[in-house]
Amino acid sequence: MGSETHQLHALFFPFMAHGHMIPMIDIARIFSVRGLKSTIITTPQHATNITSKICRYQNSGLDIKIITIPFPSEEFGLPKGCESVDSIPSRDMLFNFFDAVAKLQLEFERILEEIHPDCIVSDMFLPWTNDVACKHGTPRIIFHGTSFFSLCVANVTREYSVYESEGETFLLPGLPDEIKMKKSMLPSHLGSKDRFGEMMDRIRDTEVTSYGVLVNSFYELEPAYADHYRNVLGRRAWHIGPVSLSNNNIIDKAQRGKKAGIDEHYCLNWLNSKEKDSVIYVSFGSVSRFSCVQLTEIAHGLEASAVSFIWVVRQLKDEEDNFLPEGFEERIHGRGLVIKDWAPQVLILDHPAIGGFVTHCGWNSILEGVSAGVPMITWPLFAEQFYNEALITQVMNIGMKVGVERWSDWTEQGHVLVTKETVKKVVNQLMATEEGEEIRNRARMLKGLARKAVKEDGSSFTDLTRLIEELHHAATIGH
Ligand code: UDP
């Protein structure tokens, strides 16, 4: 093998969490659109979720397929069928899940030996794929699923002892902008090196030892941080996003992740009945769950705001379905839509009636909001979400904070973090003030840049071309 006419074969191995799986499926498709053969390794439940999508891609002529491998949930003490982070029963079982994931190494190696791909694109949470790739001389590209900004911040918080600085608020040193954060917003594993912290250290190390890093972002969104990551931190990186923009029809936009708790046409008709920029979309990603008390506060706050809304609700397991205030559904009939468990998010965000997004600041959600030109209300919870909030509110200026300041170490939020009064106030501030309109105008401008980036000759399109050329070269010289 090894000429420019050789069809490159990319092997994708996403982590089993919707926020990691969804963008990687988009990436596999984008690679195939650019002429590569894409093979996706995943476990039975995720394979079921994506099969119809992959069949559609195949029918449109793309060279893309799935290889399904069993997931040893029960062997590691997890409930049968627990194949995704959002179905782990409790925090205590997090490492049962990671241990089960690590067990996939043998099967991964067997597949690698069988199909001899030209490159591996694997998730950050599968650092052992790097060892296997090195052993076989195959370039491994790491996918974190986050922004350049948060990759830069994560590096700062690892290198500098922010906990030793005085006071609660600190300035992140060595970044292109003066970014202020509070210590309470930092992940707990930074302060005390627990098992999760050790795993994150290993992941950060593979950032350097991998072939490079694939970033779901676009240059014009965070140019200073794209440059900083490459030129100051010295990482080899390619930006190819927003990858969600590869979904450009109703079915593709609606069928991402799980089956939605609402018919997409009903949802579109509902939105069609609303004025431009008049509806706020409220969603907290694929894994976080609030307690009934917090959900009740949100319900009261949204009702009192008098703004139209779509609210996606996932609650703590085992709690009674009684979080909605008495008579709520009748009172908000026509003005509010409550979607249980899973919404067709990209379809909703792209609708002209959506004028704001209350988000937990997961990177996919942010980028989908940016791609739709929608301003945000930031309500970060865990992972790198406080870093993303800082990017939105301190660098890009396309959002307002709800005011949460404490990082949580798990996806379940058992108490009231934000009161109904605050929900009402901040929703009205974004949807019905001049300040909100200024933020909206900036968000709209970014929408144009996002769409340009993925078009032919746009910055993301070109960076992917650069990567493909490098991979051709690597294949030519036999890696
Ligand atoms: N998502 C969706 N419907 C939902 C919840 C989430 O389609 O009801 C999608 C969302 O569009 C995004 C992903 O799931 O692509 C969530 O990723 P994100 O990084 O925003 O947050 P995470 O779930 O990883 O916390």
Broad structural category:
alpha/beta
Rg calc: 22 Å
Helix content: 40-55%
Question: Mean pLDDT score, rounded?
Answer: 93
For the secondary structure, the number of strands is 17
- CATH class of the largest domain, please? Alpha Beta
Brief summary of the model shown:
The protein has helices at 18-33, 44-59, 94-102, 105-115, 128-136, 148-159, 188-191, 195-209, 223-232, 250-254, 264-272, 292-305, 328-331, 345-349, 363-371, 385-396, 420-432, 434-454, 459-476, and strands at 9-13, 37-42, 64-68, 119-123, 140-143, 169-171, 180-182, 212-215, 237-239, 279-283, 289-290, 308-313, 336-340, 354-359, 376-378, 399-401, 412-413. It has 479 residues and is an alpha/beta fold. Helix 1 links the parallel strand 1 and strand 2.
What would your notes on this structure say?
The chain has 479 residues and is an alpha/beta fold. It has two domains: 9-245 and 455-478, Glycogen Phosphorylase B (Rossmann fold, 3-Layer(aba) Sandwich); 257-451, Glycogen Phosphorylase B (Rossmann fold, 3-Layer(aba) Sandwich), CATH 3.40.50.2000. The protein contains 19 helices and 17 strands. The protein is globular, with a radius of gyration of 22 Å. The site of uridine-5'-diphosphate has 19 residues, from helix 1, helix 14 and helix 15.
